[in-house]
Design goal:
65% of the residues lie in helices and 5% in strands. It is elongated and about 85 Å long. It folds into 2 domains: 3-229, no CATH class; 240-383, no CATH class. The chain has helices at 16-29, 40-50, 61-66, 70-89, 96-107, 119-129, 132-144, 160-173, 175-194, 210-218, 226-229, 240-261, 267-287, 292-307, 313-324, 329-333, 341-345, 348-383; strands at 6-11, 33-36, 112-114, 201-206. Helix 1 packs parallel to helix 5 (96-107), helix 13 packs antiparallel against helix 18 (348-383) and helix 15 (313-324) runs antiparallel to helix 18 (348-383). A 4-stranded parallel β-sheet has the order 1-4-2-3, covered by helices on one side. 35% of the residues are buried. It is mainly alpha-helical. The longest helix has 36 residues, at 348-383.
């Protein structure tokens, strides 16, 4: 690709005007290749949509829970909800400008280049940089955002000055996500463009990426290797919270063992431990709106999951709940039309995730509050004569 022959079209992803602008520019310039800000997975979904193929097959929530990717799934769902909601309010579906680019390119028999990074890699890299507090803050920021299109003109999002203000706010609220979603992808998109063999290229990207792409193209030596940007890096540093949570069950076992060595009858204490754990697992699940079967399983496995730091009772209750609540693509699409808690309550995605979280919360209260005060502190005092 020749830098001087590159035309970058910065779009607002839910803008009707952007769709027409993209098509008009491709027909006018007739480039050697059209590059679009999509990865293969999103491109395939758009192509199926263009052909009228509706995907409504079940989503494997069971697999999501087993692979411990609830956070990734939740963030992906919320981002889809956020963009779909804006698109519904301005009567333009997300990705319409990419569809326009594809249609124009195919009409002119121009090859297409997919220049974006796989969305799952992008989100996993972002999540790996975020603390639990950062994740919660980001989730609440999206859920509390009303996306009021009467106050914000979607076309204004393509104005560089407005974009700077918007991205600066995003940077302050979630700097880790900002770095991965914006800076890293700017570099990835620029690097992908430089790999295109044709000279005359039109690139269709979100307006927020245009300044960063230009900056990297002007300084190509600053672009990291694309292979490096595709790696899923593990979190650096010492995971103190995980260590603390892992030490709690070890401490419980040690106290039981010391009490036994000191000749203290721990039979009743074990009964208390099992009963409190099971009750709190059951209560946490049932209060989160689970089926009775899910709550029973959550309660039954709670004592084991407290002792085993790598297990969570919510996984089990969530898996049972997923058997009774079949999640489909329509559940994700319906998130765009949610206006209140009642709509959320009727959405199977939300209900299953709520059961996972509710069960774990109930067991956490038992582990951190009830069991220490009712079982382990009294035992500790007996052991050391307090």
């Amino acid at each position: 690709m020749k830098r001087e022959c590159l035309t970058i079209i910065g779009t607002a992803h839910v803008s009707a005007e952007s769709v027409e602008e993209v098509k008009d520019k491709i027909y006018e310039i007739q480039p050697d290749r059209v590059a679009i800000e999509l990865d293969y997975g999103r491109y395939t979904k758009l192509k199926k949509s263009m052909m009228g193929i509706e995907e409504d097959e079940s989503i494997s929530v069971t697999k999501i829970i087993k692979e411990n990717k609830v956070s990734l799934f939740l963030i992906t769902t919320l981002l889809s909800y956020f963009q779909s909601k804006i698109g519904a309010e301005v009567d333009v579906q997300p990705g319409s400008e990419m569809i326009g680019a594809i249609e124009a390119a195919e009409d002119l028999n121009i090859p297409i280049a997919l220049i974006d990074r796989n969305i799952n890699i992008t989100l996993e890299r972002a999540l790996n940089r975020m603390s639990l507090f950062d994740k919660l803050k980001f989730i609440f920021a999206i859920l509390l955002d009303r996306g009021d299109s009467e106050e914000i003109d979607i076309e204004d999002l393509k104005n560089p000055d407005n974009l700077d203000d918007l991205l600066e706010m995003f940077k302050d609220e979630a700097p880790e996500i900002y770095e991965v979603l914006v800076h890293e992808r700017d570099a990835y998109l620029a690097g992908s463009l430089l790999r295109i063999p044709e000279d005359k290229v039109i690139a269709v990207v979100g307006a927020g990426h245009q300044p960063g792409i230009n900056k990297y193209l002007d300084n190509p030596e600053t672009i990291p290797p694309l292979e490096e940007l595709n790696k899923i890096k593990e979190k650096k540093g010492i995971p103190w919270i995980k260590i603390f949570l892992a030490l709690i069950p070890i401490l419980f076992v040690v106290i039981f063992f010391l009490a036994y060595l000191n000749g203290i009858n721990i039979t009743w204490n074990i009964y208390e431990f099992v009963a409190i754990s099971m009750i709190m697992g059951f209560v946490g699940s049932i209060l989160s709106g689970s089926k009775i079967q899910s709550a029973i399983i959550g309660g039954l496995v709670a004592p084991l999951t407290i002792i085993h730091p790598l297990l969570a009772a919510g996984w089990f209750s969530g898996l049972v709940e997923a058997k009774y609540r079949k999640v489909k693509q329509s559940d994700i699409r319906n998130l765009a039309h949610i206006e209140g808690f009642k709509d959320l309550w009727n959405n199977n995605i939300f209900r299953i995730l709520l059961v996972v979280i509710g069960t774990n919360l109930g067991v956490s209260i038992a582990t951190l509050v009830i069991l220490p005060s009712k079982v382990f502190i009294p035992l500790f005092l007996q052991i050391f004569g307090g």
